[in-house]
Amino acid sequence: METIMISVDNFMDKEKTYAQAVDILKSEDVVAFPTETVYGLGAIATNERAVQKIFEAKGRPSDNPLIVHIGTQEEVAYYAEEITAAAKKLMGAFWPGPLTLVFRQKRGHIAPNVTPGVDTVGIRMPDHPVALNLLRQLKEPLAAPSANRSGKPSPTEAQHVKKDLDGRIPLILDGGRTGVGLESTVIDMTTEPPTILRPGGVTKEMIEGVIGPVTASDSQGNKESVPRSPGMKYTHYAPEAPLYMIEPDAGKIDKAIQTLHNDGQQVAVIGPDELHNTRADWYFAIGARNDTETMATNLYHALRRCDDTESTIILAVETDLAGVGTAFMNRLSKAADGKRYTD
Ligand code: AMP
Ligand code: MG
Questions:
Q1: Which residue puts its alpha carbon closest to atom 10 of ligand 1?
Q2: pLDDT at 238
Q3: What is the mean pLDDT of the chain?
Q4: What does the pLDDT read at residue 224?
Q5: Best of 36, 186, 331 to mutate for ligand 1, by most ligand atoms within 8 A of CB?
């Protein structure tokens, strides 16, 4: 299959492009599209055969639920039961945006392979003009995980999608680089209080500012947590060379690089602008140290850039856990499979 990539930044043929994407989706196939978090690989969420193609293209294990994307807030009521007052407040405050709400599922609409083994459904309304346009023209919900091969870092550019899925999907809508750069926050609204299952761009503090105290599950990326909690059943976001987290300490980084060089290793380092280390064979500066939002935006891109180097080991500098730092460390810790560099 030939994979076509079309830019939707350009105003010219936009309508034709959306019509083409809608046709492909209605013919039970998949389309990759940009959202404000990462690129998604969408299929009509009510069509089991279409959804099956997502798993095939990604090589994704089929027991991992997919998030359903909708174009208007009203649609939630078609697929979800027990929409609480707190859920309504969160939708009002953060939709469209990077927050997925898990509800009890209304039976008979969403295809069973979207939510294998659970009676809930995760739903969000993405805050990206291309995603919203596509959803509104399609007038159907889209099941859409990130548009990468399973295990790889999520795509933040159309080129990343092309690299992973070329020849496996018919169409990529290119809307430029994504803004948030990490997947949505996932919050389970079926528990009391609600539970954050996955940290993301909408932080715990932001959520608590709207609905009061919530709990956070144990895969929150704090440095003490056990690396292999149930939510971390599969390897994720992993570059090719082994990746280790390292403290944001210039002296320790320097010493680590020296030791690794003595062992004949080639070292790539991902870290803040301020710790740029000239001994590193490659240093990917991903933003100012106190600007975790920018660092989050650039993390996956940097992980993918490491694959273009000859590095035999990657060190990635930890951030603190304030704000988006929780989500940053959650993804980094999964990419590193919990490994921290110690000499
Ligand atoms: P991805 O599709 O790669 O963005 O990952 C989606 C993640 O959202 C899954 O791995 C789950 O952790 C979470 N998720 C989606 N739907 C549900 C659900 N119904 N119940 C619990 N977690 C969910
Ligand atoms: Mg993913």
A1: 64
A2: 87
A3: 93
A4: 38
A5: 186
Q: Which residues line ligand 1 (CB under 6 A)?
A: 64-67, 102, 115, 118, 120-122, 145-146, 183, 186, 197-198
Ligand 2 centroid to 155 CA: how many Å? 9
Q: For residue 233, how far is its CA from the centre of ligand 1 (angstroms)? A: 13
The mean pLDDT of 294-314, rounded to a whole number, is 97
Q: Which ligand is nearest to the CA of 198?
A: 1
Taking the centre of ligand 2 as the mean of its atom positions, its distance from the CA of residue 278, in whole angstroms, is: 33
Atom number in ligand 1 closest to CA 122? 16
Which residue has its alpha carbon closest to ligand 1 atom 6?
66
Supply the angle between the helices 129-138 and 14-26 in degrees, to the nearest 10.
60
Domains of the chain: 4-216 (3.90.870.10), 243-336 (3.40.50.11030)
**Atom 11 (ligand 1): residue with closest C-alpha?**
65
Number of residues written out for the chain: 343
Which residue from 186, 128, 147 is spatially nearest to 58, judged by alpha carbons?
147
| Mean pLDDT score, 190-201 | 96
